[in-house]
Fold this protein.
Amino acid sequence: MSEHSKPRQLPDRADVVIVGAGFAGLAAAMALRDAGIDDVLVLERGASVGGTWRDNSYPGVACDIPSHLYGFANHPNPRWSGIFARGEEIRAYLEHVAEIEHVAPLLDTPMLDASWSGDDWRIRTGGAHAGEVRASALVLACGRLTEPKIPEVPGLESFPGPIFHTARWSHDTDLRGARVAVIGTGATAVQLVPELSEVADITLFQRTPAWIVPRGDRPYSPAERAAFATDPALLSRLRAELYAEGEARFASRSGDRDAAAAARAVALQHLRRQVPDPTLRRALTPDYAFGCKRVLLSDTFYPALASGRVQLEASALAAVEGTALIAAGGARHDVDAVVLATGFESTRQPYAELVHGERQSLAAHWTQGMTSFGSTVVAGFPNLFVLDGPNASLGHNSSVLMIEAQAAYTARTLARRAGVLRVDPEVEAAYTAEIDTAAASTPWITGGCHNWYVDERSGRLTLLWPGTVDAFRARLDTDGGEFLPVPIERGAR
Ligand code: NAP
């Protein structure tokens, strides 16, 4: 371990405290240092870096964004094993980047509370480095899909066998030969079910079928990887192509009629080809607009169902009575174990309760859903930057691109302006109104589905950025730390 990366003790103060050491925390640490801000402390509640890729270790965990686009722009990785990287590979990549960039977070050190004192932030920590640290600026890089959502199902808590969420996989539980109920059919379940069905007998509870398109994964050959390693221009061209392909997907996800119809036809053909049984096919066909929920990529999910290895229960889990799981449709399924692939608390971020600004907590400021200016700064919370928070997620392209844009904006803003930075509440309100206008006619709002992009309290789109990455980058570049609003590009519609 180099001198730089030696874990430090909790200092009394730092210029900037970053909370979280996943993609966003590492991106922020690197961007701040590149901007000449060296006195940066990273706090991480977990035992290692990696964020979502440390926490999600379920069988089949992988990324559905091509590997060469799902990494830091300044850390291309010629060694990705295939078009889509497995979770463990991404976790190892993040460990590697932290190591070579000398980003050494204080591990096992959760932020318990952060309060604005009038001229700086006072951050109370627990765990391995309990105490208080003061900082001029605070960067929340806490992730957005971190807290497992446990469905409110009567009797669930008294299920007598093993029961766990996919993001808290119990590696000590041997599911081989067991009857396992998997609850949910989102991005996680379509990766998990084909792998788990190789060893276990699965009943899959599907409340809402997903739109699924072909994935087209394959390993890179040793020759391809050698070429990536020796020809950086080849890698940058590939990244540029993948970026452009991602941006082109925005049209079909955001409601462009022709693009959505074409993509929907691809999904339906995929289903027809992989599921010959018309009854099963009908049960797997979504009845809501393409793009309303995250569109999934899988070549193995439908075949696992069509093979008979997985029994589809095409209704929600409604109740649990001992070892019997009762479906909303009335059927009873006796199982040995339950896996909750039920997603995350996305609209009420747990860190919001812990952060207290000039007048109130972030949670209180966000009672009608998350709001911000530039998807990054919040009125009433001076010198605070939230990465991957309000309106910063994507359904069409790599979220690392958004994180990097936000990290660069944060670093630029802090490097240019000393003192206390405040967002005018009217500027935040105007930005929020722009988001609402841009989102109003998109399938995320009008598509007839329930998705985790929309806040249930207000019906507002609070998680997703309703535009392209190009538009987001332009937006933050234009603002350049001046906190001046410019219109959101509405994308191809
Ligand atoms: P999710 O998309 O929120 O899916 C949760 C699933 O649980 C939904 O199908 C939901 O049904 C279902 N559910 C909840 N309660 C239920 C009940 N009582 N009975 C039956 N079903 C129930 O969660 P996720 O699959 O973990 O994915 C979350 C996000 O994580 C993704 O959208 C994606 O952004 C990210 N992710 C990404 C990757 C990747 O490869 N990049 C992989 C995994 C996850 P409804 O649809 O009816 O609500």
